[in-house]
């Protein structure tokens, strides 16, 4: 549903709208309405993108936490390398 909105703008802005409207062949009020709609759609799009990004960040961060394990876990590179070497050397055959 369309609504009527009365705006007070400067003479300079009005002249710019008139000139641009004449160039594209539309009424000045139609051009002004289109410009406002485009601007608001752009703002809504940015807000929507920011909301999606925030939702994705929250979902991603929900995976953060701690690890509880019965066996000690080391983040020491030498220990990790030794564990990897041991696993690579193993033939993993069932006995």
Key traits:
95 residues; mainly alpha; single chain; rod-shaped
Task: Walk me through the structure.
- This protein is mainly α and 95 residues long.
- The protein is 64% helix and 0% strand.
- The chain contains 3 helices and no strands.
- The protein has helices at 11-24, 28-61, 77-89.
- It starts with 10 loop residues before the first helix and ends in a 6-residue tail after the last helix.
Write the layout of secondary structure elements.
Blueprint: H1 11-24, H2 28-61, H3 77-89
Helix pairs in contact: 1-2
Concise summary:
Helix content is 64%, strand content 0%. The chain is built from 3 helices and no strands.
What share of the residues lie within helices?
A: 55-70%
Which residue ranges are poorly predicted, with pLDDT under 50 across at least 5 consecutive positions? none
- Rg, rounded, reads 32 Å
Order of helices and strands: HHH
* Major pleated sheet: none
Seen as an oligomer or otherwise, the chain set is single chain
Strand content: under 5%
Number of strands: 0
């Amino acid at each position: 549903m369309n609504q009527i909105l009365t705006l007070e703008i400067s003479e300079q802005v009005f002249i710019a709208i008139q000139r641009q409207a004449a160039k594209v062949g539309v009424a000045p009020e139609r051009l002004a309405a289109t410009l406002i709609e485009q601007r608001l759609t752009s703002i809504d799009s940015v807000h929507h993108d920011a909301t999606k990004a925030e939702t994705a960040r929250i979902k991603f961060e929900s995976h953060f936490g701690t690890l509880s394990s019965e066996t000690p876990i080391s983040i020491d590179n030498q220990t990790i390398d030794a564990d990897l070497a041991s696993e690579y050397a193993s033939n993993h055959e069932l006995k």
